[in-house]
């Protein structure tokens, strides 16, 4: 993380489920699902002639039983489309946690929405997420992240969209994503330089469980915080892959304890179980233990019976 960027939020983004706003039955299902966040989609999963109906559905849904313990994100149509401004009015009325902008090409796409929210006196807690899913979006990822973090904007998160990116570039959908890795890693550099979170793209073949598991592991290894999902059956695997495992938590706790020991006072490097440990590992360990705590608190809340 760069020196002058704000601290990255530690909200959990392991499983970010997209739900077409046109599908009332799927919207209602979200109450019972164990995903960390829900994207209410007004964009590509809603046919052009159904956009108005989808907005009405969201009004109904948001005025009903509150969706507790899940971050709420509304994906709008681009401001340049015929629907973007009406979608933004809805965002201002419903006040989700974040608005997700599709096909972000350049910093100006984020700043335009940031300005609209500021003009409407939207609270600072209403944040912006950006889909990075075009060739220009990938090329400009660092500039978008920088502008979104340093010019008073509300940008918190990038979501990679590989369906659009493959369509625009001609890269074939192959297992292992060999030719996409440089772009996926460029997004990771951009988010880490400016303190955002990064969510990996959807995996379309939701019945291919093993291939989905492999892609979650791949995304985790590249440094992604979570995965955008299209189907409830993908939630459990995403929650598992993007959570620290027991061994990693134990090791992190050992590192924290070792640096807390009086014998480590004033030392930047110590030995633990035959390995060199630096203070930078302590920072990593604290962040991992913090994440594990958030997950465990979340599970406790989930288990509580509804009053
Ligand atoms: N969110 C919430 N519930 C969902 C869901 C989702 N994304 N996808 C499916 N479900 C529900 C269905 O409503 C169904 O509920 P029911 O049994 O009470 O009727 C149940 O899960 C099983 O669904 P299934 O029959 O396996 O899938 P489907 O054929 O109904 O739908 C998709 C498959 C892909 C069309 C659907 O999952 C979907 O629309 N996903 C999101 C697509 C999207 O958001 N795209 C834009 C981002 S790329
Ligand atoms: Mg897209």
TrEMBL record:
Keywords in alphabetical order: Lyase, Magnesium, Metal-binding
Example of a GO biological process term: regulation of cobalamin metabolic process
Record-given protein name: Citrate lyase beta subunit protein
Residue ranges annotated for the HpcH/HpaI aldolase/citrate lyase domain, each copy included: 14-232
EC class of the enzyme, as a word: lyase
Binding site for Mg(2+): 133, 164
Gene Ontology molecular function, alphabetical: (S)-citramalyl-CoA lyase activity; citrate (pro-3S)-lyase activity; metal ion binding
Annotated residues for binding of substrate: 75, 133
Organism of this sequence: Rhizobium gallicum bv. gallicum R602sp
SUPFAM superfamilies for this protein: Phosphoenolpyruvate/pyruvate domain
Assigned EC number: 4.1.3.6
Membership in a protein family: Belongs to the HpcH/HpaI aldolase family.
Cofactor: Mg(2+)
Record-linked Gene3D superfamilies: Phosphoenolpyruvate-binding domains (3.20.20.60)
